[in-house]
Design a protein that fits this description.
The structure holds two protein chains of two kinds. Chain A is mainly beta. Chain A has a single domain, classed as Methanol Dehydrogenase, Chain A (8 Propeller). Chain A is about 5% helix and about 35% strand. Chain A contains three helices and 39 strands. Chain A starts with a helix and ends with a strand. The N terminus of chain A is likely disordered. A five-stranded antiparallel β-sheet of chain B has the order 1-2-3-4-9. In chain B, strands 5-6-7-8 form a four-stranded antiparallel β-sheet, with no helix packed on it. A two-stranded antiparallel ribbon of chain B has the order 10-11. Chain B has one domain: Rieske Iron-sulfur Protein (3-layer Sandwich), CATH 2.102.10.10. In chain B, a hairpin with a 2-residue loop joins β10 and β11. The N terminus of chain B is likely disordered. Chain B starts with a helix and ends in a 14-residue tail after the last strand. Chain B is globular and about 45 Å long. Classes of the chains: A mainly beta, B alpha+beta. Chains A and B meet through α3 of A and α1 of B.
Chain lengths: ~575, ~190
């Protein structure tokens, strides 16, 4: 609304907000991040959201392994000073760690000692409303790093000092447009996608020049008039149809193709936006040079359940049915474990099966891969409709991992949850929630007699077999999973505040540590001076807490109160 | 008709009626001097939504026991509605004066209390008037992250992550009009800790 207010907040951000309480001294010999280093990262580092462009979330380090993980011990901790959901992986580049936290903060630390180099605190506008107060990390390029903010800016910081290099407004926070993801950096382009699927946005992915902050391209996830796919919408629904793009894409460096997941159609009930609604709840294959859509696959049509499919698919060379092919693997929020084949100009359906119980799908069309919906469990206007799983799906945004050693996919799933709401036609008021139902009407129900909710699952994508699962009787599972070459799988995600290491082959819990808060962050592994470390942010909030509040009312014997406040934890094996 | 439905209908009417022709009246008001200034003593209150948007709220417009009305302050001298900042949106609810604690009653006018509509947690708009999660009374609830405030006890936090109560706005009834009797008490808007 007020341009002068904008200018003011921009000015403040530029001038005052990099504190340099440099207790660890200055960052000497910072290793510039290049295309070659991002394409083939050193095993010691974690410089991309899932460490590698293929999104596997796998570390080749094996000093910490099944035989010694019982001796894993905290080496240092660091309080972030803020509450809410700490979702970002600590990013590590040759001994320097960058931690993004809620409230637009980045902390640079010595990855070995935990001493602080510098801290950037963004001054968020007073009138900002944060539906998702979080950040999922900082992207790296050369001697800079990149933060996407909840007041809808992308900010470049000097990696050595934390000083702002450039600050680009992306869209207008007053209209409910915001950013929470870790930027994807490809060949000098900083690529982000917008949030706001509950506020009537039209989703997009946008690339900025890493050096100047100038916009290079912007691709809307909903085609405009005259573009292919536009005819999957009626009237003006496409202008506010959602398809937000709030998670980091994966990248095939060989074909130079970005795979980017897209969010729910808006508002929630499909009746309010008839049609297939391309490209919501899809994966888009994008050309990083110009943002052009090479091809796509829509996981489910006419989304009505808030089932964002924003978590980008993993790229895995998969052996299945007697052949090896370039796959995309995506355990969906829509409860279907998707195996697709990626080709130059097509993404083909290979296989799909429910990985948690669902009453929404009656099957999948073999030719097209389109799931067949049971209309009894598809929300409509004017009548309450129940469906399983809940709005948070079989797996929400927290990432699954793929181990190159076991060939298994590890999924942080939620079982035995159902949801429901009564759809209503509600006109959009810019900047306000626009769900197509009353927020107070949204339900999460535990199935009667359910013996567990959170379930860490190990699936063999080659056969579709569930190899093992670990059940959590009193908790959801809402945190990303990381696999290592030590045959370990690390995950938090539970309301008992524990961080756990599982045997990747059997699912046995080999180690656990109770932390300060619940963990909804992403575990990482890195190495400095010959020692392997595991790092995680513990800091509960956002949707993990929303589910907690809902669960507490289900009389399953848990309280809503999980303590908040972020801490970075770093572990190593006691020598 | 629920509060949100009333708001919805009005927005439809607005969008259909004015979006093609003149700039929206609200936008014009935003640019007027004082539109983004916080409410002041002597300001009147007008509906911020619904079929009566922009018209003065009178004590008789409120039903005892809620639901709350959403309001903007209005400068009675310049007639400027202070809708230039969402931090000015106010919730007004009429309660039994006997239910109010002493401090709350001191700021109330005939049981009518007013609070900032902006949640003290993450700055979301407070939209719901529902039974509390842990008390058996209707409370002001933010549906973003489930913070709940009891308007009878100075809008203290009774559930959820909000770190502090809502800012309160003292009211008086002067010549039959609901009038603001002082500035906000407490901080308006979400927290930025750290």
């Amino acid at each position: 609304m007020k341009m002068k207010q904008w200018l003011l907040s921009g000015f403040v951000a530029f001038t005052c907000c990099a504190s340099t309480a440099a207790t660890a001294g200055s960052i000497d010999n910072y290793s510039p991040v290049t295309a070659a280093r991002l394409e083939n990262p050193e095993p010691a580092n974690w410089m991309l959201y899932r460490r590698t462009y293929d999104g596997q979330g796998y570390s080749p380090l094996d000093q910490i392994n099944t035989s010694n993980v019982k001796d894993l011990t905290p080496v240092w901790t660091f309080a972030t000073g803020v509450v809410e959901g700490h979702e970002a992986p600590p990013i590590v580049n040759n001994g320097v760690m960058f931690v993004a936290t809620p409230m637009g903060q980045v902390i640079a630390l010595n990855a070995k000692t935990g001493d602080e180099y510098w801290r950037y605190k963004r001054q968020l506008p007073d009138d900002l409303f944060q539906l998702h107060p979080t950040s999922r990390g900082v992207g790296l390029w050369e001697d800079k790093l990149y933060l996407a903010t909840t007041d809808d800016h992308v900010v470049a910081l000097d990696a050595k000092t934390g000083k702002v290099v450039w600050d680009t407004k992306v869209q207008e926070y007053k209209k409910g447009q915001y950013l929470t993801l870790m930027p994807l950096v490809v060949d000098g382009k900083v690529i982000v996608g917008g949030s706001g699927g509950e506020l009537g946005v039209r989703g997009y992915v946008v690339a900025f020049d890493a050096n100047s902050g100038k916009e290079i391209w912007r691709t809307y996830t909903i085609p405009g008039e005259g573009e292919p796919g536009h005819d999957t919408w009626k009237g003006d629904d496409w202008k506010t149809g959602g398809g937000s793009a709030w998670m980091t894409g994966t990248y095939d460096k060989d074909t130079k193709t970005i795979y980017w997941g897209t969010g729910n159609a808006a508002p929630w009930p499909g009746e309010t936006h008839p049609g297939d609604n391309l490209y919501t709840t899809s994966v888009l294959a994008l050309d990083p040079d110009n943002g052009k859509i090479k091809t796509y696959h829509q996981y489910h049509q006419n989304d009505s359940w808030d089932w964002d499919e924003v978590d980008a698919p993993m790229l895995v060379d998969l052996q299945r049915d007697g052949r090896t092919f370039k796959s995309l693997i995506h355990p969906g929020r829509d409860a279907i474990f998707w195996v697709l084949e990626r080709k130059a100009n097509a993404i083909n359906y290979v296989a799909g099966w429910p990985f948690v119980s669902t009453d929404v799908w009656k099957g999948i069309e073999a030719e097209t891969g389109k799931p067949i919906v049971d209309p009894a469990h598809k929300p409509v206007i004017g009548k309450r409709v129940e469906f399983c799983p809940s709005l948070w799906g079989g797996k929400d945004w927290p990432s699954a991992a793929y181990s190159q050693k076991t060939g298994l996919v590890y999924v942080p799933a939620n079982e035995n949850f159902c949801g429901g709401f009564t759809g209503e036609k509600v006109p959009l008021k810019p900047g306000e929630l626009w769900l197509g139902t009353k927020p107070e009407d949204i339900g999460l129900k535990a199935k009667p007699g359910a013996d567990h909710y959170g379930e860490l699952q190990a699936w063999d994508p080659a056969t579709g077999k569930k190899v093992w699962h670990h059940d959590f009787p009193k908790s959801q599972l809402f945190g990303s999973v990381t696999a290592t070459a030590g045959d370990l799988v690390f995950a938090g995600g539970t309301n008992d505040r524990n961080f756990r290491a599982f045997d990747a082959k059997t699912g046995e819990v080999l180690w656990q540590q109770k932390t300060n808060s619940g963990i909804m962050g992403m575990p990482v592994s890195y190495e400095v001076d010959g020692t392997q470390y595991i790092a995680i942010q513990s800091g509960w909030g956002v949707d993990a807490q929303r589910i907690q509040d809902a669960l507490a009312t289900n009389n399953i014997g848990i309280e809503s109160n999980v303590p908040q406040g972020g801490v970075v934890w770093v572990f190593a094996v006691k020598k | 008709m629920s509060d949100s439905t009333r708001r919805s209908l009005l927005v439809t009417a607005l969008a259909a009626g004015v979006s093609l022709a003149a700039p929206r009246p609200a936008a014009a008001e935003d640019d007027q001097p004082g539109a983004d200034e916080r409410p002041k003593k002597g300001d009147l209150l007008v509906f911020s939504e619904g079929e009566h948007e922009g018209s003065l709220i009178k004590p008789g417009d409120l039903d005892l026991g809620g639901p709350p009305l959403h309001a903007w302050p209005k400068d009675p001298t310049s007639s400027v509605i202070r809708s230039g900042s969402r931090l000015n949106e106010i919730l007004i609810v009429k309660l039994d004066p006997g239910e109010l604690d002493d401090a709350t009653r001191a700021h109330a006018a005939d049981g009518i209390v007013a609070y900032s509509a902006i949640c003290a947690h993450a700055g979301c708009p407070i939209t719901a008037w529902v039974k509390g999660s842990e008390i058996d009374k209707d409370v002001l609830k933010c549906m973003c992250h489930n913070s709940e405030y009891d308007p009878r006890q100075g809008a203290e936090v009774v559930f959820g992550p909000a770190p502090r109560r809502l800012a309160a706005l003292p009211l008086a009834i002067i010549d039959g009009s609901l009038t603001i009797a002082g500035s906000f008490i407490g901080k308006v808007g979400g927290a930025q800790p750290g």
